[in-house]
Amino acid sequence: MGIVDMVTEKMAQMPYPEAAIKDVDLKGMGFDGINLLAKVSVSNPYSVPIPIGEITYSVKSAERLIASGSIPDPGSLKANGDTGLDVAVKIAHTALVSLVRDIAGDWDVDYLLELGMIVDLPMVGSFTIPVSYKGEMKLPTFSELIKGKSEPSEASAPSAD
Predict the structure, then answer these.
(1) CA distance 8 to 56
(2) Rg of the Cα trace of the chain?
(3) For 61-91, what is each residue's pLDDT tens digit?
(4) Is the pTM of this model over 0.85?
(5) Are the C-beta atoms of residues 42 and 16 closer than 8 Å to each other?
(6) Among the listed residues 103, 101, 84, 120, the one whose alpha carbon sits nearest the alpha carbon of residue 34
């Protein structure tokens, strides 16, 4: 076994940060779109804080991309522990209009939220922590919008991947 093989084997055995989306809430609706808030928990097995360079996100529904974006420099992961992150996602109304068939049946939107947290790991370099979440957004009815219902319904979560 050569030195390159030994280094490769040791790198493969290193612990890596892991992430899970704990919850996604529908936080509000405005003239520009719908706002979601994803609650993410990230565990850092290292004894030093790890900077997060960027969080990228995409939201898909009916196999169509309905939103994507990034959040630059959202902070750092705590050393030897879990860090809670709030990831805000905005979906334009025009994207939801393209899903009329899905919405018309039960007035909800089935979606897949995919996040990528890009961190800089010691000895490894740039590393993306992928995490995804399948859920369902219950949209307010027209009568609720007209009556001015102020409390949006929550997005539910059948499963987190």
Answers:
(1) 28
(2) 19
(3) 888 899 999 999 999 999 999 999 999 999 8
(4) no
(5) no
(6) 103
